[in-house]
Amino acid sequence: RPETAVRLRCPCGPVTAFVPWDGHRSGNPVRFHSVPAFAAATDLAVDVPGHGKVVVDISYGGTFYAFLSAEQLGLDVCSSKTRDLVSAGSAVTEAVKKQFKLHHPESEDLAFLYGTILTDGKDAFSEEPTTNICVFADEQVDRSPTGSGVTARIALQYHKGLIQLGQTRTFRSSTTGSLFTGKAETKFGNYNAVIVEVSGEAFYTGTATFTVEEEDPLKHGFFFK
Questions:
Q1: Which of 75, 119, 181, 186 is most exposed, with minimal Cβ within 10 Å?
Q2: Residue 129, preceding peptide bond in cis (omega within 30° of 0)
């Protein structure tokens, strides 16, 4: 009490989540501290088939995303059809992959573009929520504002001087209306990276049980030589 730290090993590195606990059950909001997040490129001109030339930013929050306002693609992130937003976001992702080479300062295994986040363009600090939609992987859409996406967007806004350390912004998913908050907690390392805290509601969706039988010869695991 009043909070339990849960340390997770993610593909991008260790992430610590914090869950409220009253001695009987967990509560909300749940928050996590990100891996170091940073802007990789800003104001990058990209030619997107079917949409012409657009200007995107690329930022890392555990994975890389391209960011741009939906307006550049002739869409509105709050009112356009999700199918149209997904198609446009996917087209941007493919165009960026072909026209820009990513680099991660610590692991080239992480140097790939995971998706595109279309925004309402409201990047300057405000008490009002800013809306976005995350189109990732194989044209999938996140039901939330996206944890790694909010992390990357906060890092981008900090890099541009649009927010300061400790300022909290609220992000809304255009698909479900769910909300996350995010803030840049501290600067990190020799490059202009920040640790971001992301907070939102979390609910149980399932449980899993693992069983170890005594006669299992590999019950304690194994090593490769």
A1: 186
A2: no
225 pLDDT exceeds 90?
A: no
Contacts 24+ apart (CB under 8 A), 137-142: 139/86, 139/87, 139/90, 141/82, 141/86, 141/175, 142/173, 142/175
**Closest by alpha carbon to 180, among 34, 71, 7?**
34
For the stretch 59-88, pLDDT in tens is 999 999 999 999 999 999 999 999 999 999
What domains are defined for the chain?
35-193 (3.10.310.10)
pLDDT digits 0-9 by tens, 133-144: 999 999 999 999
Structure confidence at residue 72 (pLDDT): 98
Rg of the chain in Å (alpha carbons): 19
Say which DSSP state 176 is in.
T
89 to 31, 69, 115, 133, 155: CA distances (angstroms): 28, 10, 8, 9, 20
